[in-house]
Fold this protein.
Amino acid sequence: MPESPESIIDKANSPEQAFSYIRRRGRFTAAQSRAYASLLERYRISPQDLQHRSGPVGMEIGFGMGAELLDWASQQSSWYLCGVELYQPGIGAMLTRLHSRQLTNVGLIDQPAQQVLAALPEHGLDEVRIFFPDPWPKKRHFKRRLIQPEFLAQLHRVTKPGAFVRLATDWAPYGEWMVEQFSTVEGFKLIDDRVRRADEQTAATRGTTKFEARGERLGHAIRDLLYESQHAAK
Ligand SMILES: C[S@@+](CC[C@H](N)C(=O)[O-])C[C@H]1O[C@@H](n2cnc3c(N)ncnc32)[C@H](O)[C@@H]1O
């Protein structure tokens, strides 16, 4: 039976369809595919689960293969860290390492970050990291960029007063875009803004991510931004 126009419209407006430009599937290695099949349920959490944590909570959005997320978890073992990612081979890669490193302070949410933030209660996150989000360089795709006023308003709502938001990009126009978008929402203060050439040493605060290394090979400068979430006293 042909689909009704209403059902086509419903699908187009469904959360799945709204984020269909984000790549979920790709080629798995055997280890990634095994880990994805056997470990996903064990480490998968929901946004609601974050409400019940007593200690500090950090989140990395778009963790890729997960190396940075796991380093963060080892360095700050008293924190609970939540990785948000949709790309299944990346999730498999992160789960393989998470399992072999036996870290107990990491959970995973495989939903679009925009939906995750919308589902979180106010002021629950102590730090958020977003390293090398997809730059979507074509003008007609700018609306797909993660950093948008609505996303930042949600990010502000879910971060604690004084929480840090760390971002990095190797795409200079996206760096400019980020600063512009942050300036349109209330409550974020720019604390640090560093640009380094591709051949300069990486910032000591983090290791080099996979997409950063790719940017360096292409000769791109790397920009690191640090914002603080500020909330007026009630
Ligand atoms: C360019 S990669 C960077 C990965 C990693 N941070 C790095 O630096 O190597 C961007 C990642 O963000 C993920 N991503 C894009 N949009 C997302 C969204 N709305 N929610 C969650 N993850 C998203 C993609 O699947 C991809 O793995």
Remarks:
- The longest strand covers residues 159-169.
- The chain has a mean pLDDT of 92.
- The two ends are 57 Å apart (CA to CA).
- Residues 24-229 form a domain with the Rossmann fold fold (CATH 3.40.50.150).
